[in-house]
Amino acid sequence: MQSRRHFIRQSAATLFAAPWVTTGMRAASPNGKLRHAAFGGSGMSWADMSQLTNHPMWELVAVCDVDTRNFKKAQEKWPDIKVYQDWRELLEKEAGNIDSVNVSTPDHMHGSIGIAAIAKGKHVYGQKPLAHNLWECRQLVERARDKGVMTQMGIQISSDFSERLAVELIQMGTIGKVKEAHTFSNKKWGDMEARPEKSDPIPAELDWDKWLGVASERSYIKGYDHPGQWRKRRDFGTGTLGDMGCHMFSGWFRSLDLAAPISVVSRGPAPNKDNWAINAVVEYTFKGTKFTAGESIKVTWTDGDARPPAEVMALAGDVAKFPGQGTIYLGTDGVLLHPHGSTPMLFPKDKFTGFKYPKLEPRNHWFDFIDCCLKGDKKPSANFDYAGPLTEAVLLGCLASVFPNESLTWDAPALKIPNNETADKMVRRDYRKGWEIV
Fold first, then answer.
1. For every one of its 438 residues, what pLDDT tens digit does the chain have, with 9 covering 90 and above?
2. Whose CA, among 5, 66, 360, 374, lies 20 to 30 Å from 317?
3. Strand, coil or helix: what is 331?
4. Residue 271 and residue 251: Cα distance in Å, rounded?
């Protein structure tokens, strides 16, 4: 068993590792293109397909969706694709015709589909969060590494100029050593009410059993889970933290060279048995790095109506103009406010008047994945070796919300929460019979 120190050092090292050389993983199609299958026909999968198709060496072969109503738009854009309602059937029948996949389904199926695709040697573009629980997340990382496939998590903001600039500014020492950080989102992917005790007719186009997948059986309620509200449900989504955390943690995960948290504690309301709560406050403690001011650093997540402390927001000027989503870094020599998806700002303004911002070359997150799959000479920027520890931190915060005000210790090498037996059992979910991951 690796020591905690070795594990954290090894995980963090993958962020800036030299190009990873592999052999035999180039696309096998006769025309040299990356032959691709999409899991999900709408929503984020549609967004991913629409970006991937802009690369001249990408070819869509098949699309899978449990709701056949989602095939129409894809078939209109790519008339020659094959369509499937069962992801297992697609992988079985198209294994010899595809080189890569994107897994852009509801969160609860990310692990099952991604692991099965990796087992067949397929490159995987996996939407965030990488998986629905910690055990699945670790399995994706380890199995992808063992198979030598290319991977990328769908945190496209990590390739965006704005996040990369924030990372550069922090690592240049622009605000000195970072003392603490606060990440915040005003989204409200939660529901404080219990699941209604009702049942509606299942649409003929929807295979409800396959939509449930690994989750336990329950009645179909029109509009409650499928298609658009599943992020609120504990069995299917991961709430606001799971939705936005993987995007927004990436800035400080990379800039501060962090890996596994030491501990996490939730100060917000607990979820009920069915749904995630809103207005979360989650405090993480990480081991310090050369970019932090102390031997450890605290990073706090807030969502919904919960916000960073007023005195923290005031460090970036007018509190009324504080952005709805982003991260604020408090350094020994200044403050950096990074509104999500927008240009970072330095404070106090007087101190940084005339500051020359570094120039960065553009990067395309989806093309990064395709090029790495085709060339095989390096890993994509948000590969699973990076995205795995990042997602584990996010999911640990989701889990901690079930135990308000209890500090959970995280033993990353052992994938265990040693100080809370009940929480430790939640590292891995219970799978519905016939849907187990092996």
1. 333 334 333 443 443 333 333 333 444 566 899 999 999 999 999 999 999 999 999 999 999 999 999 999 999 999 999 999 999 999 999 999 999 999 999 999 999 999 999 999 999 999 999 999 999 999 999 999 999 999 999 999 999 999 999 999 999 999 999 999 999 999 999 999 999 999 999 999 999 999 999 999 999 999 999 999 999 999 999 999 999 999 999 999 999 999 899 999 999 999 999 999 999 999 999 999 999 999 999 999 999 999 999 999 999 999 999 999 999 999 999 999 999 999 999 999 999 999 999 999 999 999 999 999 999 999 999 999 999 999 999 999 999 999 999 999 999 999 999 999 999 999 999 999 999 999
2. 360
3. strand
4. 27
- The pTM (predicted TM-score) of the whole model is 0.93
Cβ proximity of 304 and 188 under 8 Å: yes
Burial 344-381 (b: 16+ CB within 10 A, else e): bbbbeeeebeeeeeeeeeeeebbbbbbbbbbebebbbb
Q: What angle do CA 124, 129, 133 make, to 5 degrees?
A: 105
Question: What does the block give as tokens for 286?
Answer: 């990480």
